[in-house]
């Protein structure tokens, strides 16, 4: 909500069956801002939730964020500027920081070297675990696998890799929160 980007954008929030105060907080946020839309559904899982967001979105460029992740104030501006200058690119990702629940830095994910060999490396590691943005027309027809409990974003990128030109913004524009109680903790802690 504190973005430096001067263009219009929509924030689409999908409540996937939350039982805490999240739905009320989201609705209050939407009441205060004209560019926020809130959708509710019974718990469908992460793949179906991401697919519904794809179907409901109206934007040309689509960003995906989970509830405990954060983007820097200039994230939209920098990524949109990259897309403006690179019309052939359909998927953009940035560098990121991994933080704990107190916001303390765990590590920094710099991706420039990996990006040089994206199409070969992506099949061996999920290195673009950062802010991801997609040109809607470039990913039309692709969907997340609803049967997966984790790794659905990685599988989605594997699907699009042969078909979509990739771009990298070498800036820390995204903070990924490692949650020891949630999916990220169980996946990373293995």
Description:
There is one protein chain. It is built from seven helices and eight strands. Strands 3, 4, 5, 6, 7 and 8 form a six-stranded mixed beta sheet that branches. Strands 1-2 form a two-stranded parallel ribbon. The protein has helices at residues 22-32, 46-56, 75-85, 112-115, 118-121, 152-160, 183-188; strands at 11-16, 36-41, 61-64, 70-71, 91-99, 105-109, 132-135, 166-177. Residues 182-190 have low confidence and may be disordered. By secondary structure, the chain is an alpha/beta fold.
How would the blueprint of this fold be written?
Blueprint: E1 11-16, H1 22-32, E2 36-41, H2 46-56, E3 61-64, E4 70-71, H3 75-85, E5 91-99, E6 105-109, H4 112-115, H5 118-121, E7 132-135, H6 152-160, E8 166-177, H7 183-188
Count of alpha/pi helices? 7
Report mean pLDDT, rounded to a whole number: 90
Overall 3D shape:
globular
If you compute it from the alpha carbons, what radius of gyration comes out, rounded to the nearest whole angstrom? 16 Å
User: Major sheet: size, sense and barrel closure?
Assistant: 6 strands, mixed
